Amino acid sequence: MIFFLKSTLTVSIRAICIALFAWQFYLLTQNFQEFNVSTKVKKYIPNEIELPEIRIKVPYQFALDPVIIKSKYKTQFDEICRHFSAKKDCDGHLTNPILFSKSFGPYLRLSDIANYSYAPEMFIRRVTVVGSRENALKTGKCKLISEASSSCLVLILKCLDSSDLPLKVSRSEVVVSNANHLLSFKLNATVMLLNLIYPGKAAVGDDSLYAYSSLTPGKQITHVIHFTKHTENLLSAPYKTMCKDYNQRQTFEDCLNANSIDQTGLLFPGTTVSLEKYRKASEIRFNAMFNKDNGTLLEIYKQCQSIVNQPICNSVQYSFKMTKTIEDVSKGEEKAILHFSVSSKPDSLTESKPEFPLSDYIILSGSLISTWFGISIMGQLLVASNLFCLAVERKSPVVSEHQDETMNPK
């Protein structure tokens, strides 16, 4: 009877312990598999400032040799110009430069843009970086190239180090010298649109964030651009942020152009492409953004948007404020001067971290197993000491009795 009760009690205790362990382990695993993240925003003043990639859009009527415009594209130019101007002298390309260029650009072949656009050095001849009076374009610190979009020639100024990462300058050096200017240059362009991005980390929406400026006859305009950097680090799958490590903007534009050329024979409007790639493609041009029959373009846009719906794991965006000072100058000496300066506002870093990391899950799982089924080292030492003491106690009377028998023989 006692044996049966002991066996039943043992089985019951084991069953209850296993059930409780399974329930607790299930709750622990379920919590871990939710893959929740916590977000923390840190604002800081960097000791070293990275120079962003500067993109400047110049409308085609100010970026191409006027001879090719007035000869090969005269009909289209005059027609669009009259649409934006009520005057007989047709000044629509000056009074509405951006809208004019959006309508005129799709008529231009990429080969003509490549062969008849002004060289990048005609727009920016000299770039100075803080700490040096030398031309950064000559020393190799900065590189200037041009690309084509559907409405503008795009000037891209990159200042990179030996590892092809954004060039860093010391904040203290910037503050002490050159009136807080990180980088400066003169721009020989009547109209411009300016944007800042981080090389290789442009998001889909970054291409729409441009600031506008134009020259006025008899005026010199000095622009001061203060910018701040905003970094966001997300977690990839299976965590809920579901980020992806890729160049989102470039992936999106490559998809748009590949599908647009395949279905319409033309490049997708609003994208930016290399001039060298299409220099010999005599018939390639951009699709018209205001095309009435844009159903195909809309389908292409939706299709490509679906492949870039994952956020970038390590994204960087810039916010900037551009102020300008206007001075009177002699006619013919009009120019735009751009100074990129230290901002008084701090940069920000947004980091996502797992609320329940894998390391914690492993530790808690091990603790749970050891709690229910494990063997305590201290407990085992105590049991061993008790057994040792018990063995000694049992051995002592036997030894005494033996000794008595030896001393008192019969």
How would you sum up this structure, described in words?
The chain is α+β, with helices and mostly antiparallel strands and about 400 residues long. It has one domain (about 45-355). It contains 13 helices and 15 strands. The strands form 3 sheets. Strands 1, 4, 8, 11, 13, 14 and 15 form a 7-stranded mixed beta sheet that branches. Strand 5 and strand 6 form a beta hairpin. Helix 1 runs antiparallel to helix 12 (about 360-375). The radius of gyration is 37 Å and the shape is elongated. The two termini are about 50 Å apart. Mean pLDDT is about 85; it is low at about 400-405.
Shape descriptor: elongated
> How many domains make up the 3D coordinates?
1
Helix content bin: 25-40%
Order of helices and strands: HEEEHHHHHHEHEEEHEEEEHEHEEEHH
Q: Topology of this protein?
A:
Blueprint: H1 2-32, E1 37-44, E2 48-50, E3 53-59, H2 66-71, H3 74-83, H4 92-95, H5 97-104, H6 110-116, H7 120-123, E4 127-129, H8 136-139, E5 142-149, E6 152-159, E7 168-170, H9 171-176, E8 181-187, E9 191-197, E10 211-214, E11 219-233, H10 248-264, E12 272-274, H11 295-305, E13 314-328, E14 335-341, E15 347-354, H12 358-373, H13 377-407
Parallel strand pairs: 11-14, 11-15
Antiparallel strand pairs: 1-15, 2-7, 3-6, 3-9, 4-8, 5-6, 5-12, 8-14, 9-10, 11-13
Helix pairs in contact: 1-12, 10-11
